[in-house]
Amino acid sequence: MKYFLLLLLTLQAVAQPADLVLKGADIYTVDASRSWAQVLAVRDGKIVYVGETDSVHSLIGEKTRVMDLEGKMVLPGFHDSHVHPASSGRELMQCDLSEARSVQEIERTIRAYEERHPGQDWIVGGGWLMTVFPEGQPSKELLDRLLPHRPAYFASSDAHTVWLNSKALEAAGITSRTPDPPGGKIGRDARGEPNGLVSEEAILLVSKLLPPSTSEEDLQGLLLGLTHANSFGITSFIEANATEQLVTAYQRAAAESKLTARVMMALSSDPQKGLEQLERLIALREKVKGPLLRATSVKVFADGVVEAHTAALLEPYLDEHHKGLTIWPEEIFEPFMVALDKAGFQVHVHAIGDRAIRNTLDALAKAREQNGNGGHRHQIAHLQLLSPADIPRFRELGVVANFQPLWGYNDSFMRKLTIPVLGAERSKWLYPLKSFHDLGTVIVGGSDWSVTSINPLEAIQVGLTRTDPDDPSAEPLCPEQALELGDLIAAYTINGAYGMHQEKETGSIEVGKWADLVILEKNLFEVKPEQIGKVPVLMTMLGGEIVYLREGVRI
User: Fold this and answer.
1) Residue 151: which domain range?
2) Hey, which of 86, 141, 172, 297 would disulfide with 346, CB 3.0 to 4.6 Å?
3) Do 440 and 497 belong to one domain?
4) Residue pLDDT, tens place only, 42-63
């Protein structure tokens, strides 16, 4: 009897008019069978019907909003599994060097910014590309010439190196006698004098002196970041390094109903504090709970980046003959990872070099050995250089492979700063997505914006072609590691939802899930691979509500 009543209630619910119907579309559901549909219906923010046009008429009532999409493509909302919207939004409000492609353009941008902000104690900005400068290294002398009277602080595009002038070095007390801090590196010239570059943990020597941002500035930066993310179809993301200050901004956005995505925050951790910070992280996790916001992950930096020679390698760099650096002291790294796992956190690890990746896998293996398999779906992000022997361990340990597919092509960083210092043999294992996929490892996609573009379609294009998105005729990077279109879409939808522990709620277009949707101008399966990154996003919906509408689009 109870099953009959349940069926009756379900049929009655389905028979109720929908709030919204999308019809005439190419709907790629990304469900288990990768099925297609023509129409979907939404009620109270959730999908109540997916199927053929003829069967939806009973759901259309007087107040139902019907959109005829005339052959446009509908996908589940994109999941960006590694991104920094709040800090990236703040960067847009500072001296942004991300569009500069020459030293002259950098100079013009800095001069113009200084003239517009005569009262600032520090000139702060970022986004400069290493490839603009010889050997990837700008000089403090250039900044001294541009900014002789105020300290200057400019983070590189990858945020692992900061460029300083002499005033900033002086303010931080950095001299030729200052030792490299643990996990950090102070750049030096041939005489041993600071050259204006600091990397990894050495950045903290200076960043602690920067004027703190206000709560209003933090919120404004976050809102700018959210708007940018929504404009590319992103409805869920992992905030990949949430300081307590950023946590407050996210909480405020949620409380004011301004949070336009589902967010899982990876809380910042400090290698100098080790296990003593665990109680604070647990308390912060318990404090952050809501329908759109969670703080169930912790960010851990295992190493730096290849371009600055701070990525941890199994074999030495070819030019400097050392193996890079690890951010955490070895005696603390593994116990901290084990403790996070035991506390129920999903660990989110930055690991670029093959030694950093192996160390992380070893630590997660120890966590499984001591704590059992908790199903936390730990993630290792970036995965630039792999030892082939370590690739099978991801599936064995249940670790999610968090790639940035946009990085997998022969750009100037690869040609000038990466392949020459790794050599041809190691460079065969740069961003090996296909090797992971063929073993059944869960692959998710992220942008790491503002390091590079937040556009998932551009990343999908490169994942397909392994070539420069602006020059499709260029030589591909490890073309055997390219993925199929359906697999890349899955990385940014259902796999991303799995990585965020929300695959029962989002990630595919199925009855009962939230109507988190992105509407594209064209069907990606009918577009040339080299054009996918340019397909416009027309609309983004979160729970059936429009959070982005392209200018000029009428609905």
Assistant:
1) 121-207
2) 297
3) yes
4) 999 999 999 998 889 999 999 9
